[in-house]
Write a structure and sequence with these properties.
- It contains 11 helices and 8 strands.
- With 368 residues, it is of the alpha/beta class.
- It has a single domain, classed as Arginase, Chain A.
- It has an 8-stranded parallel β-sheet, with helices on both faces.
- The model has no long low-confidence stretch (mean pLDDT 95).
- The structure holds zinc ion (ZN).
- Zinc ion binds next to loops.
């Protein structure tokens, strides 16, 4: 099976500048790892997409936000202060520092890739497509935050519904941070099942994504938040997949799976406190591949996060390996702890699973 990988060099422009945690060299690091023998037989083809137009962006953002964002970040990339008040539309962590790249343009490439990913899968070019730089899950219709300008995850789902007539789309967010932006787009929408595994919101940005947040109106039951305990590792994630993610997915019967999230659940990540080893990323890719049998093997996978440069390309590759069904020989980063030791957070994870089930047993018979 050949993976389609959407990538272009221009993605390096998604760079908030020196001193900011989100730099543009991450994409090239992954591409380099992909090109070297680290893939160990993953069959892939690189595809380039075009920039998203304003018309494309209207599907996910309002005009005023797009206009401001375009003008502000284009000015910033030229070293100008730029117009207006950034904080009216963006959070402080979206402030570019020093000499940033052409962030807005790169963000348009990422939405362009989302559009192209939908076309490639729906028109039968590939069953599984990875969009490098995708998964900007904190962005909303009129607000950018958490290093995200335009929400390409939401774009994928809305585009698949609007252009290809899909009725059941699964978004599986495995990033360490809750996908508050994506959640907002679909909170009352039963066409999109949003399952979000993330670090306990009491301990990390954005502070949302508790088990009791289950959706609204017709969308009740179609948002499933799984707040993972700090430190949760391989066995915790595996158990959540076995007891919640897989059974609900089988009951929902999605027509496609969109997964997003990069390397930040890794135990050596610089911004988060989860405990996933590289093998855990492989396992996630593998689980998604197995679940996708329910939807003709269709998967769009979005990877951009990660705040440890030594981990990031390997974790992204591990996901790709799992998706492709190619067992990789993964080289874990140096650590003092025994990553093969029992996941001591499993007991806490079991409590979280019971909480999620209690909140959702009215909506999903498999959780009853
Ligand atoms: Zn994250």
């Amino acid at each position: 099976m050949t993976l389609g990988i959407l990538y272009r060099e221009d993605l390096k422009e998604y760079d908030f500048g020196q001193g900011h945690p989100f730099r543009g060299d991450r994409f090239d690091a992954f591409y380099h790892a992909l090109r070297s023998n680290l893939t160990q037989g993953i069959d892939y083809r690189i595809v380039k997409s075009d920039l998203a137009t304003d018309d494309d962006l209207f599907l996910i953002c309002n005009r005023e936000y797009i206009n401001f964002t375009r003008e502000f970040y284009r000015a910033a990339s030229r070293g100008l202060t730029g117009p207006g008040d950034l904080y009216r539309f963006h959070s402080a962590d979206n402030t570019p520092l020093g000499k940033p790249g052409k962030i807005e343009e790169a963000a348009r490439f990422i939405v362009g890739q989302a559009k192209e990913a939908c076309r490639l899968v729906q028109e039968g070019f590939f069953q599984k497509v990875i969009s490098v730089g995708g998964g900007l899950h904190h962005a909303r219709r009129s607000r950018g935050e958490g290093f995200c300008l335009y929400n390409d995850v939401a774009y994928c789902a809305l585009h698949l519904i609007k252009k290809y007539g899909m009725e059941r789309v699964l978004i599986l967010d495995t990033d360490a941070h809750a996908g508050n932006g994506t959640c907002e787009y679909f909170y009352d929408d039963p066409r999109v099942l949003f399952i979000d595994l993330h670090q306990d919101p009491l301990t990390i940005y954005p502070g949302t994504g508790f088990a009791g947040e289950v959706g609204r109106g017709e969308g009740k039951g179609f948002t499933i938040n799984v707040p993972m305990p700090v430190g949760a590792g391989y066995e915790s994630f595996q158990m959540v997949f076995d007891t919640i993610v897989e059974p609900v997915t089988m009951e929902f019967k999605p027509q496609i799976i969109i997964r997003n999230g990069g390397s930040d659940p890794h135990f050596k990540d610089g911004l988060t406190s989860l405990g996933l080893p590289l093998e855990g990323f492989f396992m996630i890719g593998q689980k998604v591949r197995q679940m996708a049998e329910v939807c003709d093997d269709k998967v769009i996978d979005l990877v951009c996060s990660g705040y440890n440069k030594d981990v990031l390309p390997h974790a992204w590759l591990a996901i790709a390996g799992g998706l492709a069904g190619i067992k990789l020989n993964l080289k874990e980063v140096e650590t003092d702890c025994d990553i093969h030791a029992e996941d001591v957070y499993l007991t806490k994870t079991k409590e979280v699973i019971e909480d999620v089930k209690a909140n959702h047993r009215d909506y999903w018979s498999c959780l009853g």
